[in-house]
Design goal:
Layout (H helix, E strand, L loop, with lengths): L7 H30 L18 H21 L13 H17 L2 H6 L4 E9 L10 E9 H26 L6 H5 L8
Antiparallel strand pairs: 1-2
Helix pairs in contact: 1-2, 1-3, 1-5, 2-3, 2-5
């Protein structure tokens, strides 16, 4: 039996959607948890795992940027997400995830697959001192990618990093979530 080829669309849009929808569910769970326990939902917005790590609101903005604007970068050759908004009401973060899902749903397989294999030179922020990335300043560097390698080696890893960090922030604040919440709806074959 021949194995069908995996396309750029297959590895990007459904993957971003699965996790973005799961993050939306996790945010809903956090809202319910705070309502049930009397915890202040708005305190989650600025919560951090460690003092030198970005807060929860940044994690949500960054994961939506790497999904939607990562695909836009493949289309246009420029990674230009909108400026960060910063701390905002928790409900606005939830809306941001919904907007990202809608934007992702608008991409068609024909569109995304048509961008496959393009050569791109994209400015991305990287540590100035790669040997000390955790303490180094970061600055833009122009890197040569293909559309496929940009998504697979830059946008998807960053997207997952920020999704996991958001999940972990909520978990450390007592929101009752588990691995299944993070995984979201698996893409199983029909039987």
């Amino acid at each position: 039996m021949a194995i069908p080829a995996t396309t750029l669309y297959d590895v990007s849009v459904p993957t971003f959607l699965q996790t973005a929808r799961a993050v939306g569910g996790v945010l809903d769970r956090a809202t319910r948890h705070c309502a049930e326990t009397g915890a202040d939902l708005e305190q989650l917005v600025t919560a951090r795992l460690f003092p030198d790590m970005a807060p929860f609101h940044f994690q949500i903005e960054a994961l939506t940027h790497h999904a939607v604007w990562g695909l836009e970068a493949v289309k246009t050759g420029v990674f230009a997400p909108p400026p960060l908004v910063g701390a905002m009401p928790f409900a606005d973060l939830r809306d941001m995830v919904d907007q990202a899902v809608k934007a992702l749903e608008a991409f068609t397989p024909e569109q995304v697959n048509g961008w496959s294999g393009k050569n791109l030179n994209i400015d991305v922020f990287r540590p100035v001192d790669a040997q000390n990335a955790s303490t180094s300043a970061w600055a833009p560097r122009n890197l040569a990618f293909t559309s496929d390698t940009f998504l697979l080696s830059y946008s998807l890893p960053n997207f997952y990093f920020h999704a996991v960090t958001a999940y972990n922030i909520l978990r450390t604040r007592g929101v009752p979530i588990g691995k299944g919440d993070y995984e979201g709806r698996l893409r199983t074959r029909s039987v």
